[in-house]
Automatic annotation (TrEMBL):
<dbReference type="GO" id="GO:0016491">
    <property type="term" value="F:oxidoreductase activity"/>
</dbReference>
<comment type="similarity">
    <text>Belongs to the short-chain dehydrogenases/reductases (SDR) family.</text>
</comment>
<dbReference type="InterPro" id="IPR002347">
    <property type="entry name" value="SDR_fam"/>
</dbReference>
<dbReference type="Pfam" id="PF00106">
    <property type="entry name" value="adh_short"/>
</dbReference>
<protein>
    <submittedName>
        <fullName>NAD(P)-dependent dehydrogenase (Short-subunit alcohol dehydrogenase family)</fullName>
    </submittedName>
</protein>
<dbReference type="InterPro" id="IPR036291">
    <property type="entry name" value="NAD(P)-bd_dom_sf"/>
</dbReference>
<keyword id="KW-0560">Oxidoreductase</keyword>
Amino acid sequence: MTQRRYASDIPDQSGRTAVVTGANSGIGLITARELARHGARVLLACRDERRGKEAASRIRGAVPDADVEFAALDLADLSSVREFAEAYTPDRLDLLINNAGVMALPYGRTADGFETQFGVNHLGHFALTGLLLPKLLGTPGARVVSVSSAVHALSNIDMGDLNSERNYRRWIAYGRSKTANLLFIHELARRTAAIGSALVAAAAHPGYASTNLQTAGVRMENRRVAERVIELGNRIIAQPASTGALPTLYAATAPGVRPDSFTGPRLLGWRGAPAPSWRAGWTLNDVASERLWVASEQLTGVTFAGLGI
């Protein structure tokens, strides 16, 4: 399957409703655009209103009949997550694409006091999924797709230090947050199977794709040289965001996607068309996924009604 062939072979999404977090740029923007191109109604769940509305306009420019709308969502603030879920009015939710994320930031905390990468990349999406779960369970053929990373291989989670308070290393913290994404999908798939639900919980990663995610951390610290080096790598080595979005689109729309699958680029997990991706064994550990689930419910105050085991 070629890259272009899958992008053009996305099944008709007419009548389906999708929420894409972080849809104002990069992979999220491409994902939202292509879902809209194939007929889905897409809600762009973004933190920045101006950028979110600009993204909606850009999609309409590329797809004149696109049904897209901006909705405010700040994953670094659980009150915003709750407000988003409470304001979600459609009677169905076919696709929840947990795409937004931050990478290798200097140490910081969310509005609720969580380490930023763990709070945004995992806890915010955990809470969002839990709050929208009734809509998902009530929609035949619904899917949840979480965007992880090959960098999850840097580290397993540390249940004794989920907020990396003892020894913060930005890339290790990022790897742990991406491991958490995979453990969340593993446990969600396990719990939905236990109640006989057909909801598909799957994960994807973009390989090395050129987005603004890589430069955000160094830009915050005004590290100009590092920023230029990363930008050069994005131009020379990385694949474009349009290709990096294909694994997410595949996990979200391709027939026969299995629960708890992990899709990434075919070529060494680095670039290319979507294919099954390697994942660290610790992301398939039932005990770890259940422990993280319980801790996440306690930290966020969000429980997944009907999925208790």
